[in-house]
Design brief:
The protein is an alpha+beta fold and about 425 residues long. It folds into 2 domains: about 90 residues, Nucleic acid-binding proteins (OB fold (Dihydrolipoamide Acetyltransferase, E2P), Beta Barrel), CATH 2.40.50; about 300 residues, Bira Bifunctional Protein, Domain 2 (BirA Bifunctional Protein, domain 2, 2-Layer Sandwich). It is about 30% helix and about 25% strand. Strands 6-10-11-18-17-16-13-12 form an 8-stranded mixed β-sheet, sandwiched between helices. A 5-stranded mixed β-barrel has the order 1-2-3-5-4. Helix 5 packs across helix 7 and helix 5 packs across helix 13. It is elongated. The two termini are about 30 Å apart. The model has no long low-confidence stretch (mean pLDDT about 95). The protein binds 4-amino-1,4-dioxobutan-2-aminium adenosine-5'-monophosphate and magnesium ion (MG).
C-alpha cells in the first residue's frame, strides 16, 4: 500500500491541450470515466478531466488482455490514468480519439453511480458532492472563478486595494430582521450581512477599497435569486459622489462581461450561452420614472415603496442592456444612505438592474458623512446608536464624502449564464431549506 501511494500521477496533457498538433503523439491523461460502452471488440470510454472530454478506445486486438480486462471491469466515475496515441477520428465526439496503450485504475468507483440522467433537482442537490463534477457544473464554477479574477484585475487597474473584513460582527447593516445570531462567549454576535461599514473605516487610509467575502441573510423567502449565504463583492471610494460610484459599477460589469466572453469560450459553448458586452454608459432612470413606468404597465404601486419582484421584473423587461434606477426614497433605504440635499425625501443611491426581466445586480450610493445627520437617521430607523458608536466616531475625524456598492457574485453569474436557479451558482448552496451537504 505504501509503495502504491508514493507512485507518480503525472500526466502529460489536459484534454483541452489535445488538438491536431498532438496527432500521432503518445500522451498520458488523468481523470474520470464519464461514460462507457463496448462494441465489436472495442471498449469506448468517454474520458473527463477539468478541461473537457475525449474518447478513449481500447481495441481487443491492440492491447494486452489484462489491459482489455481492466477496461472491461472499470466502472463509471472511477478515476483513471491512461496512456495512448492521439488519432483523428471524425466519429469521435470531439473529432479526436486516444488509442490506449496502458490503462490504470487509480480508484475504482462503486458500480451504483446514483445520478441517473433524469434525476430531479432536489435529488441532485442532496447529492451536490457528486453532482458538482458534471461538465456543466465544472464550467459554471470555472466561470465563477473568472468573474472573481476579472473583478480583481479590473479594480486593481482602477487603483483599488483589496481588504479582508471580519465576518463575525456586532450590528446590522441591512436591517436586523435578516441577521443570523450566534453565541459569542456569553454574548451575541452576528454573521456579516455586508462589510460596508468596515470599508468606510478603511478608506480613510486606503482611499479605494474592495473585497470579495461571504455575506449572510436570514431571509425566509424562497426565490430563484436569494441565498442565505452568498459571496459579496463590495467596493468603496472616498472623495467621491454617487455619480462616481455608478461609473465604477458600470465599468466593472462591462469588464467582467468582456473577460468572460474572451476567456471562457469553451465553457460558454458547453453551456450554450452567448455573452453580450454592454455599452457604456449604462442608462440611468429615476425612481420616479420607474414608478411611472410601473403604473403604465398596470401595477398598483405608490411612491415610497420598494419595488416588489414582479414590478422590478416588469420594469427590467423594458430594457435590453443593464441600467440604473437612482434616487430611491429615503424611507425605503438603510440608515447610511445620503439624502439628496436638494430633495431630502430621496437618497443619492441606485440599483443596477440587469435587463430582460432579470432585476437587481447591485445596490450602491453615497453615504452620510456627517455625524449629526447620521445620528438622526439612526434614531429615525429606531436603531440603537450605541451599536454604531465607532461608525459615528469615524465622522468626527475627517471622513470625506464617499460612496460604494455591493454585488452578489452568484447574482451576476446567474444573469450571465441565464441559470434557472441561483443554487446552480454555488459550490454548496445555502437556502432556508438547505444547509447540507
Ligand atoms: O442590496 P444589498 O443588500 O446592499 C448591501 O448590502 C450594501 N451594504 C452593499 C454596499 O453598498 N456595499 O446587497 C448588495 C448585493 C445585491 O444587489 C445582490 O447582488 C446581492 O448583494 N445580494 C444577494 N445575493 C444573493 N442572495 C441574497 N440574499 C442577496 N442579498 C443581496
Ligand atoms: Mg439591494
Amino acid at each position: 500500500m505504501k509503495g502504491k501511494l508514493l507512485r507518480t500521477f503525472e500526466k502529460s496533457h489536459y484534454v483541452v491541450e489535445l488538438d491536431d498538433s498532438s496527432t500521432g503523439k503518445s500522451v498520458t491523461l488523468t481523470g474520470w470515466v464519464h461514460r462507457k460502452r463496448e462494441h465489436g471488440g472495442v471498449i469506448f470510454i468517454t474520458f473527463r478531466d477539468s478541461t473537457g472530454i475525449v474518447q478513449v478506445a481500447g481495441h481487443r486486438s491492440e492491447v494486452s488482455s489484462s489491459t482489455f480486462e481492466t477496461m472491461h471491469q472499470v466502472t463509471l466515475e472511477s478515476s483513471i490514468r491512461v496512456t495512448g496515441k492521439v488519432v483523428v477520428d471524425k466519429r469521435a465526439p470531439t473529432g479526436i480519439e486516444l488509442h490506449v496503450s496502458s490503462f490504470e485504475v487509480v480508484s475504482l468507483a462503486d458500480p451504483e453511480w446514483p445520478l441517473e440522467k433524469d434525476a430531479g433537482d432536489a435529488f441532485l442537490y442532496d447529492k451536490r458532492h457528486l453532482y458538482l463534477r458534471s461538465p456543466s457544473q465544472t464550467a459554471i464554477m470555472q466561470i465563477k472563478a473568472e468573474i472573481s479574477r476579472a473583478a480583481h484585475k479590473h479594480l486593481d487597474s482602477e487603483g483599488f486595494t483589496e481588504i479582508f473584513p471580519p465576518i463575525l460582527v456586532s450590528a446590522s447593516v441591512e436591517g436586523g430582521a435578516t441577521l443570523f445570531p450566534l453565541k459569542y462567549f456569553g454574548g451575541t454576535a452576528y454573521l456579516s450581512q455586508s462589510a460596508q461599514l468596515y470599508e468606510e473605516a478603511a478608506i480613510c487610509g486606503l482611499e479605494k477599497v474592495y473585497l470579495i467575502a461571504p455575506s449572510f441573510r436570514a431571509e425566509k423567502h424562497r426565490t430563484r435569486r436569494h441565498l442565505t449565504e452568498f459571496w459579496h463583492l463590495e467596493a468603496e471610494l472616498t472623495f467621491a459622489t454617487h455619480d462616481d460610484i455608478m461609473g465604477v459599477e458600470e465599468r466593472l460589469v462591462r469588464a467582467i462581461c468582456k473577460h468572460i466572453k474572451d476567456k471562457c469560450k469553451r465553457q460558454l459553448t458547453l453551456l450554450d450561452v452567448k455573452i453580450k458586452v454592454p455599452r457604456l454608459p449604462f442608462k440611468r432612470i429615476t425612481y420616479d420614472e420607474a414608478i411611472e413606468m410601473a403604473v403604465q404597465l398596470g401595477f398598483k404601486v405608490s411612491w415610497g415603496e420598494d419595488f416588489g419582484r414582479e414590478v422590478e421584473r416588469a420594469i427590467s423587461q423594458q430594457f435590453k442592456e443593464p441600467f440604473f434606477i437612482k434616487g430611491y426614497p429615503t424611507i425605503a433605504r438603510s440608515f447610511y444612505h445620503l439624502p439628496d440635499p436638494d430633495r431630502p425625501e430621496v437618497t443619492l443611491s441606485s440599483d443596477l438592474i440587469a435587463p430582460s426581466g432579470f432585476g437587481e445586480l447591485t445596490s450602491g450610493g453615497q453615504r452620510i458623512h456627517d455625524s449629526d445627520q447620521l445620528m438622526e437617521r439612526i434614531k429615525e430607523q429606531a436603531l440603537d446608536p450605541s451599536s454604531y458608536s465607532w461608525y459615528l466616531e469615524l465622522r468626527e475625524f475627517g471622513l470625506p464624502p464617499h460612496a460604494g456598492f455591493g454585488m452578489g457574485l452568484e447574482r451576476i453569474l446567474v444573469w450571465l449564464l441565464d441559470l434557472k436557479h441561483i443554487r446552480e451558482a454555488c459550490l454548496f448552496p445555502r437556502t432556508p431549506s438547505r444547509i447540507r451537504p
